[in-house]
Design brief:
It is built from 5 helices and no strands. The chain is mainly α.
Length: about 140
Amino acid sequence: MKLRIISLASLLLATGVALAANAPAAPHGGKDRMDRLALLLDLSEGQKGDVQRVLNEQLQQRKEQFQQAKAAGTRPSREEMRTQHEQMRKETIEKLRPVLSEQQLAKFQALTDHRQGPPPRRWHRDRSQPQTQPQQ
């Protein structure tokens, strides 16, 4: 009985590993992200194309800003980056206003609204307490 359970567990584990190895990596953005956004906002096919166009324009504008800063050899401060990001966000909302309903626009804003402040601390040790050196 134990042998059957162990064999079955091993088979399931090997199957899971084989399937995971053959699964394509999730792309950063692209069609899957747009499909998810279309589902969450309940977009029609026409709206989906318009939203994709606006988001692609935003991405292109961001790339151009990055290239300009890189060519100039400067790095914008956090405040400058935050200001640029907020300006682009406002422009995107204004471009989407004629495309989306008020309810869809509110959902879009909720989905893309990033928390202000420092990122959450994850898996970091508490640096407020003094670190002791291990004794040898």
